[in-house]
Predict the structure.
Amino acid sequence: GQNIDQPTEMTATEGAIVQINCTYQTSGFNGLFWYQQHAGEAPTFLSYNVLDGLEEKGRFSSFLSRSKGYSYLLLKELQMKDSASYLCARRAGGYNKLIFGAGTRLAVHP
Amino acid sequence: SAVISQKPSRDICQRGTSLTIQCQVDSQVTMMFWYRQQPGQSLTLIATANQGSEATYESGFVIDKFPISRPNLTFSTLTVSNMSPEDSSIYLCSVGFGETQYFGPGTRLLVL
């Protein structure tokens, strides 16, 4: 997906913590988004980072390093309902156009 | 946030025909977008629907195949023209709202 890389699949255990990494092309960068998408449903907005550092929102946190072209989504206290695809996307330029990675399919097991 | 609805939610069409997908938003938004998500893949931007002017298409997408209308700040349509089985996909409307972008529920299209 246009130089956005994230792992294809991950598995984790219920109650555990999982970190999903995303690297992206830094040129024209103007914000990094994470979306959750359950099978057969539309993507749901999780987080937006434009400055370096960690943004925490309940069980989900997102981190950004602009100089490294790197972000991660951290999911704590995993629940079975967290089994979904997680899409990393960057905003291109001063414009709301989003470029998506291929997504990471997370499977949470009991 | 914005509430986004799409019609139809799904359809099965014959090759060579055309389908128009509608997107309605519950508030006025400047930016509206159309994405495609092919089976097992991520989202690809088709075009930006501009109110009062022609849509802006991404590389690989053309107006003759995907004509778009944007008559006002709450509504847009995407037409998939002269369909082939390769057009089988989910088509998603999206709006820019503040710093964030939200997605409609999608239209699942199967072309036979």
